Amino acid sequence: MESAQEKYIREHSSEESEALKWLVKQTNLRTNYPRMLSGQIQGELLKLIAQMLQARNILEIGCFTGYSSIWLAMGLEAGGKVDSLEINDELEDLIREGWSRAGVQDKTELHLGDALEIMELFLNEGRKYDLIYIDANKREYLNYYKAAKRLLRKGGVILADDTMLGGKVYDSPETSDKQTRGLIEFNDFVAADPEVEQLILPLRDGLSIIRKL
């Protein structure tokens, strides 16, 4: 249930487009985990960060139904592109319809398959990105991060979603839960990485902003 604070923030932030509202509704109707959507406030932040970086090349690790891809695409510089990775091919039709309704189908490219394997292909092709957004399998966050850093240009930014996981990363530091352990290892590694500067915003389940030095 939306809190009074969340309601106030939403009402005083840029509104979702009709295409995004449609995609939210369809995600709730057609998927089992609609809460995986990044949401209006986080979406607007993704767009603003892309704009501030003047991003032309964005990599998204974990597309889900394509909601965050749309926000990222809206923040692109002219001629830019979002490469979006998704392992669940059953979501392809919904993703593509949402992108088409939002008018970003020419700014987005869907890559279906294992994210780490696709990222290795991108590395071999010499690709470089201005902004990389991680919102996929929490067990693999550290591996995603290590590959993402190699794909990121100097001064580029990695955004990692859900890095507080509802407080589990600090309430249950000795947990054996693989998702929580994956995020704890990721957070500890990034905090000790001398090649970046970073902070965690307490937005939703935590959003890490990591800049490559």
Q: Explain this structure to me?
A:
With 213 residues, this protein is an alpha/beta fold. The protein has one domain (4-212): Rossmann fold (3-Layer(aba) Sandwich), CATH 3.40.50.150. The protein is built from 9 helices and 7 strands; from the N terminus they run αααβαβαβαβαβααββ. It has helices at residues 4-11, 18-30, 40-52, 67-74, 92-102, 115-125, 141-151, 168-171, 178-191, and strands at residues 57-61, 81-86, 108-112, 129-134, 152-161, 196-201, 207-212. The chain starts with a helix and ends with a strand.
Give the key terms:
single chain, 213 residues, alpha/beta, Rossmann fold, seven-stranded mixed β-sheet, 9 helices, 44% helix, globular
CATH architecture: 3-Layer(aba) Sandwich
Mean pLDDT, nearest integer? Answer: 95
Strand content: 15-25%
Q: What is the strand tally?
A: 7
Number of helical segments with 4 or more residues:
9
Characterize the overall form. globular
Could you write a compact summary of the structure shown?
The chain has about 210 residues and is an alpha/beta fold.
Write the layout of secondary structure elements.
Layout: H1 4-11, H2 18-30, H3 40-52, E1 57-61, H4 67-74, E2 81-86, H5 92-102, E3 108-112, H6 115-125, E4 129-134, H7 141-151, E5 152-161, H8 168-171, H9 178-191, E6 196-201, E7 207-212
Parallel strand pairs: 1-2, 1-4, 2-3, 4-5
Antiparallel strand pairs: 5-7, 6-7
Helix pairs in contact: 2-5, 3-4, 6-7
